[in-house]
Design goal:
Blueprint: E1 6-11, H1 16-25, H2 27-30, E2 34-37, H3 39-46, E3 50-51, E4 56-57, E5 64-66, H4 74-83, E6 89-93, H5 103-115, E7 119-121, H6 124-131, H7 147-153
Parallel strand pairs: 1-2, 1-6, 2-5, 6-7
Antiparallel strand pairs: 3-4
Helix pairs in contact: 4-5
Length: 157
């Protein structure tokens, strides 16, 4: 049996529709995991409608833990969860053509995902490959923290 993962979903405004299309396409797989998202992204995912117009279904309603909006601290909340080992995968559809007012927070997410060896995608193709990997949720697979973390944590000042 595959483990349930904690997946963080983030998208800048210009890429929110792309992330929503990705969530819609992967709804069956994503519905088996715990989802966390920054403010507006989380609301939009929760409001995704499936089925017919007469009988819409909302499979993600009340299934997404919404954090603050990214610029208001949501990126930092996800960063803290990465550092605490509470997130297994980060999907962040970021707009690399525009400088964000909270660019330092955006850069910190990338740095933390890399540092803590977290599965991390910044585009749809990579997100698809991560979500469909045979290692994803495989209970015999263990994410390994890089040695540099223990070395840094145990350094003598």
């Amino acid at each position: 049996m595959k483990a349930i993962l904690n997946i963080a979903l983030v998208a800048h405004d210009s890429r929110k529709n792309e992330l929503l299309d990705w969530v819609r396409f992967n709804a069956d797989l994503l519905s088996k995991h715990h989802l966390y998202a920054t403010g507006t992204t989380g609301r939009l995912i929760s409001e995704l409608a499936f089925g017919t117009e007469e009988e819409p279904e909302y499979p993600f309603k009340d299934k997404v833990t919404r954090l603050l909006s990214g610029p208001l601290g949501g990126d930092q909340q996800i960063g803290a969860m990465l550092a605490e080992g509470k997130i297994d995968m980060l999907i962040f559809f970021c707009d690399n053509l525009a400088v964000q007012g909270h660019q330092n927070d955006v850069s910190a997410l990338s740095r933390l995902a890399s540092l803590y060896n977290i599965a991390f995608a910044t585009n749809r193709t990579t997100a698809d490959m991560l979500l469909t990997s045979t290692l994803l949720g495989n209970e015999s697979y263990t994410r390994i923290d890089p040695e540099c973390i223990q070395h840094y944590a145990n350094r003598k000042l």
